[in-house]
Write a structure and sequence with these properties.
about 475 residues, alpha/beta, FAD/NAD(P)-binding domain, nucleotide-binding, redox-active center
Length: about 475
């Protein structure tokens, strides 16, 4: 017996569950299919972000930061703690509890918004005159009919060729979040977001961490000045990062993992570690979707081909998030999910990729939105730059964390903000002001004229805006 819905969403990650909720708010009958399972085998909606990505990694980052503060910094505040130790199983248990709270929250939101949830794997069966037939396999086998389908199946970790994840010694982000003890030596391949965040967690807890990065420059996507400032901070912390390397043979050994590689100088080297985290990017998750049954077009990477409105080559089939082009970011997926639901309803929402913020939750945090200085130079666009260091910010001094700076890039003629780049304390929160400003086509002068609370970290943004016009007040 089939069940009919206006819209069926495949995947309950950030793009999928948000699309389902928004579509239900707009008056459609909506179903959402998702196969993630918790430890007990029950439903765990939220996708990679909630289960093995954004949420659990932030929980571990917070725990490890508290540990490092207690071990190294409490004394300067007059707080005596004695010997400090880390209970890794308890830390992991807390992380799991945070994940479950988010899983349960999504299930509650489905119920609140009258979204019908199916726990299982969703796939296409065939195209119909008025829509599509879909199959749900797994815990809740079902046949669904839908006028519109939104595919939000996300992505999965990319493994090294010939080196599959065993999640014991060779780890993806999933295994890296489930370690029950601090490895003495930890190797990481890839100095991107996952590599830096996981490296930061386990370094703080006592691991000797070495990150091998194939690119010759550190954080090539970020503004060069910001990347250099971040690299200096990581070097001081003892996070060893080797750039421009070529990874060779990776072998599991009795004691862990051995990685042969060529250094940027051309010298051959061997890195031995108890555990290896591979963080070399992610690939679109379209396996098992049965795309060929309906002729859904995929590109050479396995991603679903969509236009600027997230429409596929099939009428009534849409796709959002990591499974399509664009940055693999949870908040990008959410914006696309909302936009698709509203487009189905005949509205005209807009998602501007240039104002999607990027954040790396290390210490110092790194965040940016818009164009970098090197991009503006390459485009030949005349610009002005304003920089303000956190060392001159009163709130940062009170926090005891004055690492980093805020940098604003503005058009030389119009003063329109073209990019904002930050490295320092809590910049994951500060970047929102820059996103709002850029969405409203604000000038650097606009931010410079806005009253910011004192003392606050946000004053660094105001001062950077003042610095664009060479009139900073506190530096």
């Amino acid at each position: 017996m089939s069940q009919t819905f206006d819209i069926v969403v495949i995947g309950a990650g950030p793009g999928g569950y948000i699309a389902a909720i928004r579509a239900a708010q707009l008056g459609y009958t909506v179903a959402c299919i998702d196969e993630w399972k918790n430890a007990a085998g029950g439903p765990a909606p939220g996708g990679t972000c909630t289960n093995v990505g954004c949420i659990p990694s932030k929980a571990l980052l917070q725990s490890s930061e508290y540990f490092e503060h207690a071990r190294l910094h409490f004394a300067e505040h007059g707080i005596a703690t004695g010997a400090v130790r880390i209970d890794v199983p308890q830390m992991i248990a807390r992380k799991d509890a945070v994940v479950k709270q988010n899983n349960d929250g999504i299930l509650y939101l489905f119920k609140k918004n009258k979204v019908t949830f199916f726990h299982g794997r969703g796939s296409f069966v065939r195209a119909l005159e008025s829509g599509y037939e879909l199959a749900v396999s797994g815990a809740q086998p079902a046949t669904l009919l839908a006028r519109h389908v939104i595919v939000a199946t996300g992505s999965r970790a990319r493994a090294l060729p010939g080196v599959p994840f065993d999640e014991e010694r060779i780890l993806s982000n999933d295994g890296a979040l489930r370690l029950q003890a601090v490895p003495k030596r930890l190797a990481i391949i890839g100095a991107g977001v996952i590599g830096l965040e996981m490296g930061s967690v386990w370094r703080r807890l006592g691991a000797e961490v070495t990150i091998l990065e194939g690119l010759p420059t550190f954080l090539a996507a970020a503004d060069e000045q910001i990347a250099k400032e971040a690299k200096k901070a990581f070097d001081r912390q003892g996070l060893k990062i080797e750039l421009g390397v070529k990874v060779g043979e990776v072998k599991a050994t009795k004691k862990g993992v051995a990685i042969a590689y060529t250094q940027a100088s051309g010298a051959e080297a061997m890195l031995e570690a108890e555990r290896l985290i591979v963080s070399i990017g992610r690939v679109p998750n379209t396996e098992g979707l049965n795309a060929e049954a309906v002729g859904l077009k995929l590109d050479e990477r396995g991603a679903i081909v969509v236009d600027e409105l997230c429409r596929t080559n099939l009428p009534g089939v849409w796709a959002v998030g990591d499974v399509v082009r664009g940055p693999m970011l949870a908040h990008k997926a959410e914006e696309e999910g909302v936009a698709v639901a509203e487009r189905i309803a005949g509205q005209r929402p807009h998602v501007d990729f240039n104002t999607i913020p990027w954040v790396i939750y290390t210490s110092p945090e790194i965040a940016w939105v818009g164009q970098t200085e090197q991009q503006l130079k390459a485009a030949g666009r005349a610009y002005k730059a304003g920089v303000f260091p956190f060392m001159a910010n009163g709130r940062a001094r009170a926090l005891g964390d004055t690492t980093g700076l805020v940098k604003i890039l503005a058009d030389a003629a119009t003063d329109e903000i073209l990019g904002v780049h930050m490295v320092g304390p809590m910049v994951s929160e500060l970047i929102a002001e820059a996103v709002v400003a850029m969405e409203f086509k604000a000038s650097a002068e606009d931010i410079a004229r806005i009253c910011h609370a004192h003392p606050s970290l946000s004053e660094a943004t105001k001062e950077a805006a003042l610095a664009v016009d060479k009139r900073t007040l506190n530096f």
